[in-house]
Automatic annotation (TrEMBL):
This is 3-hydroxyacyl-CoA dehydrogenase. It is found in: Peroxisome. CDD domains: crotonase-like (cd06558). One of its GO terms (biological process) is fatty acid beta-oxidation. It catalyses: a (3S)-3-hydroxyacyl-CoA + NAD(+) = a 3-oxoacyl-CoA + NADH + H(+). PROSITE patterns: ENOYL_COA_HYDRATASE. One of its GO terms (molecular function) is isomerase activity. Its main location: other. InterPro entries: 3-OHacyl-CoA_DH_NAD-bd (IPR006176), 3HC_DH_C (IPR006108), 6-PGluconate_DH-like_C_sf (IPR008927), ClpP/crotonase-like_dom_sf (IPR029045), Enoyl-CoA_hyd/isom_CS (IPR018376), Enoyl-CoA_hydra/iso (IPR001753), NAD(P)-bd_dom_sf (IPR036291). SUPFAM superfamilies: 6-phosphogluconate dehydrogenase C-terminal domain-like, ClpP/crotonase, NAD(P)-binding Rossmann-fold domains. Keywords: Fatty acid metabolism, Isomerase, Lipid degradation, Lipid metabolism, Lyase, Multifunctional enzyme, NAD, Oxidoreductase, Peroxisome. Residues 299-475 form the 3-hydroxyacyl-CoA dehydrogenase NAD binding domain. Residues 480-573, 611-694 form the 3-hydroxyacyl-CoA dehydrogenase C-terminal domain.
Length: 701
């Protein structure tokens, strides 16, 4: 059996090596191993100092997240750390890679910390809905004071070795090649110069100034009102750090443990950890393992509008050579200017130097009005007007000039990728790459796989997503793919609720209260009321006569209320104000539309609004799964989390449905179906899962 923790002898120094790939997480076997090896070294008279380090690519990256929510198995991490702290011989942590969460807490329980240049430390528990529960909230303030500890723990940000040294989190940055070398050198000094056992628990200087005062904590709680809306664990973190300042160490540790437990039991922990694993799983597409990838050095972007320019910027910043194609010189100049403007904004925000921007614009970016310029590129993304005939024309031109093996991608958000592919002589090279606006910012990329798309083209799509710093999600072909198709369904329910009695502002408030950053009407104003209008006109010809149609948004469009860009939409925007004010004119339009249909308005509570919204989302998502448009529930969760503002701490709609209970969701759908049987046809998959007593999680692979 391979040992996950081994003890090596280096003269009078013992090295305890954690070897639990991939990230040396602190599962039960590691905790047990650490406890036993430490005990062995502590009781060995020949050992005068102990170094703790990680094998392979990193120090310990934290507790084993997979264990949360399961019955705890001894020894607990705090117990193991307590042993290190109490060890009568110097214990030194030698850090490389990332020392995170419980991993950094192990280091804090050691008497000294040395890090390789390039190592990072951090307490990212907040991102998982918990708090550092093995002394991190108690020891960190003792090293760097409460204010800086709060900054570090509330942000969850990683701290580079040099910065950690200047803050006082670690004792040395080493130029050694390996953590073993660094640890042994430090231990030698500790032995030769008889370093005292520096136990962080005994350090008081940094917290004395805050004792008996509440300013730091009041400030932190004040900020959380804005930055941590709806979140649970940040508030508990402030409580825990305050306990570090106010209570003796052992009482503080006890308090930390209680608060940690509250966080572990909160549904937010389950949601955030689901999000963590889902975003890692989403790129591992069943059936794609081992598929070859095509090289990507140069790319073409057809269309220099907002979308095309954003895609070009995203590609340029990833190091690709990009050629933009536009129909005439004037449009090309506009497209290039948009690229320049976006890059300039990155320079202003300090994300890019002026020199790099100039180099990108002159050396990596070019434009042409002639498709022949694309003859040698590896991939082309078309981002022209959303019209099948226009796009078919573009694909025909691309087909004529592209080299063999080049990938033809469309950025369409709903058109039939198979129909586009069929118009070319190389349908296996055609794929959908659905970027979200603004394309250089939004992390989601739907990778739309047609009937004939070759696996290596799909694998290359995922490689491109990664290179662009985006999260790629595999989607099948249908109107709207995964995200926009689901959106179209739950969006309609919003219009129905407004016509039935809710005000648009009540709806937005309720959806924000659920945790979305914006309400649907605010989103509509941001995107443009005309966008929704165009979508509805596109669907006029195919709309089922049984479908309820609400005209309120059409009245807004006809009144020229296009949203933020025209100063009025669902909200009224005074000059330079993007927040928008409620507008009685809109409420009047709604009243008139209700009157036309003799609708007696009824009231909706925020919970009723949320339940309908979510039920519609989940039901359509189940249909998307059932049809194979999304392969797994987690693909839907990641899509909604990254492209549609679904609150991360709720894990995504499928995770949320599992947590609420699929039987309750189905019961809601069936009760709404009594009012509108057409809109609320339950997904067969949902009915089946409820009958079998299973959940969406059981379908994740
Ligand atoms: C904690 O410590 C609580 C304590 O305070 C209190 C306890 C009492 N557990 O991200 P990658 C897997 S909470 C289990 O692709 P990278 C990951 O799923 C923890 N598994 O690599 C993936 O698996 P697979 C605090 C984990 O190089 C593989 O490792 N710590 C864990 O891009 C590679 O991961 C954190 O929150 C884990 N803790 O990034 C750190 N971590 O290959 C979370 C990773 O099957 N981790 N895996 O898909 C990270 O931030 C990144 O993984 C890391 C490496 C930066 C370490």
């Amino acid at each position: 059996m391979s040992e996950v923790v081994r003890l090596e002898r280096h003269g009078d120094i013992a090295a305890i090596v954690v070897d639990n790939p991939p990230v040396n997480a602190l599962g039960q076997a590691v905790r047990q191993g650490l406890k036993e090896r430490l005990n062995e070294a502590a009781n060995d008279d020949a050992v005068r100092a102990i170094v703790i380090l990680g094998a392979e690519r990193t120090f310990i990256a934290g507790a084993d997240i997979r264990e949360f929510g399961k019955p705890p198995q001894p020894p607990s991490l705090p117990e193991v750390i307590e042993d290190m702290d109490a060890c009568p011989k110097p214990v030194i942590a030698a850090l490389h890679g990332t020392a995170l969460g419980g991993g950094f807490e192990v280091a804090l329980g050691c008497h000294y910390r040395v890090a390789l240049d390039g190592a990072k430390v951090g307490l990212p528990e907040v991102k998982l809905g918990i708090l550092p529960g093995a002394g991190g909230t108690q020891r960190t303030p003792r090293l760097i004071g409460a204010a800086k500890a709060l900054d570090m723990i509330l942000s969850g940000d990683f701290v580079a070795a040099e910065k950690a040294l200047s803050l006082g989190l670690i004792d040395e940055v080493s130029k050694a090649e390996t953590p073993l070398e660094a640890g042994l050198a430090f231990a030698r000094k500790a032995i030769d110069e008889a370093y005292p056992l520096r136990r962080v628990r005994d350090l008081e200087d940094e917290i004395l100034a805050d004792r008996g005062k509440s300013d730091v904590f009041d400030d932190a709680r004040g900020k959380l009102k804005k930055t941590a809306r709806g979140l649970f664990s940040p508030h508990k973190i402030v409580d825990a750090v305050q306990a570090a300042v106010e209570l003796p160490f052992d009482d503080g540790i006890k308090r930390e443990r209680e608060l940690f437990q509250e966080c572990v039991e909160s549904p937010q922990r389950a949601g955030l950890i689901h999000a963590f694993f889902s975003e890692r799983q989403v790129g591992k597409v069943p059936g794609l393992k081992g598929a070859a990838r095509r090289p990507l050095i140069s790319a073409g972007v057809v269309g220099g509008g907002t979308m095309g320019a954003g895609i070009a910027v995203s590609m340029l910043l990833s190091g690709l050579q990009v050629i933009m194609i536009e129909r005439d010189e004037e449009s090309l100049a506009r497209g290039k200017a948009t690229v320049d403007k976006i890059l300039e904004a990155s320079v202003k925000r300090g994300k890019l130097t002026a020199g790099s921007k100039a180099a990108v614009m002159t050396e990596s970016f070019s434009g042409s009005t002639d498709y022949a310029a694309l003859s040698d590129v590896d991939i082309v993304v078309e981002a022209v007007f959303e019209d099948m005939e226009v796009k078919k024309g573009v694909f025909a031109q691309l087909d004529a000039v592209l080299k063999a093996g080049a990938i033809l991608a469309t950025n369409t958000s709903y058109l039939d990728v198979d129909a586009l592919a069929a118009g070319t002589s190389r349908p296996s090279d055609v794929i959908g790459l659905h970027f979200f606006s603004p394309a250089h910012v939004m992390k989601l990329l739907e990778i739309v796989v047609g009937d004939q798309t070759a696996p290596e083209v799909v694998a290359t799509g995922f490689a491109l997503a990664k290179r662009l710093g985006k999260v790629g999600v595999r989607a099948g072909v249908c109107d709207g793919f995964i995200g926009n198709r689901i959106l179209a369904t739950y969006r309609k329910q919003i219009d129905y609720m407004v016509e039935d009695g809710a005000s648009p502002y009540e709806v937005d408030d309720a959806i924000r209260a659920f945790g979305f950053p914006m309400g649907p009407f605010q989103v509509s104003d941001l995107a443009g009321v005309d966008i929704g209008w165009m979508t509805r006109r596109r669907l006029d010809a195919t709309r089922d006569p049984r479908e309820r149609y609400v005209e309120v948004a059409d009245r807004l469009y006809e009144a020229g209320r296009m949203g933020q860009k025209s100063g009025a939409g669902w909200y009224l925007y005074s000059e330079g104000n993007r927040r928008g004010a409620k507008d009685p004119v809109v409420e009047n339009i709604v009243v008139q539309e209700r009157a036309k249909k003799d609708i007696e308005p009824k009231s909706f509570t925020p919970e009723q609004i949320q339940r309908r919204y979510l039920a519609a989302m989940i039901n359509e998502a189940a249909k998307v799964l059932e049809e194979g448009i999304a392969l797994r529930p987690l693909d839907i969760d990641v899509t909604l989390l990254y492209g549609y503002g679904f609150p991360r701490w709720r894990g995504g709609p499928m995770k949320y449905a599992d947590m609420v209970g699929l039987d309750q969701i189905l019961a809601d759908i069936r009760s709404y179906a009594e009012e509108d049987a057409f809109a609320w046809q339950p997904a067969k998959l949902l009915v089946d899962l409820v009958e079998r007593g299973e959940n969406f999680e059981s379908l994740n692979k």
